[in-house]
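Sanity check

After download, print the first record. It should look like this:
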Amino acid sequence: MRPGSTAWWLAKIRQTKRHLFARVSERERHAVAAWLTPAQLAVFAEMHVADQRHGLDVVDALRLGGTRDPEVLLAGLLHDAGKGHVGLLPRIVHSLGQAHITWVAASVGWFPPMRRSLVRLRDHAETSARIAEAAGCAPRTVELIRWQDDPRDPEAGERLRLADEAS
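Expected structure tokens:
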């Protein structure tokens, strides 16, 4: 999906709604706890609820597409762990930058909390990969997370990228 296209804008509006109304049920939390190590579960628990919800939705999309590989599913669940508890406004500013509407970030990006949030969002794939590695994830899972936007694995990486875009 090309940044700035109609489909991209519609996806961003859908993401904003999902961010605002994100919830994870106790049943879902228990289901996740059944297949994660304690360290991985701690990473999931620390994620913003919108990123938890998104990770669960990516896992569902991967499973619906036939993916059963636990390393790929784990990458789908934790791929945004590095975003931290960044709020909605920095996420919107970051997305506008992806669509080459850079004047918004230029006008508010000088403000230290906004600047930190924008850097965190920009670098979240690498940060998420390091967090996953520290939590004991397999090297393949770490690399799928690291290269989530530009997959190096032509099959699993591309499935993760497409599930991420669709969710």
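If your output differs, re-run the checksum step. Summary of this record's structure: The chain has a mean pLDDT of 92.
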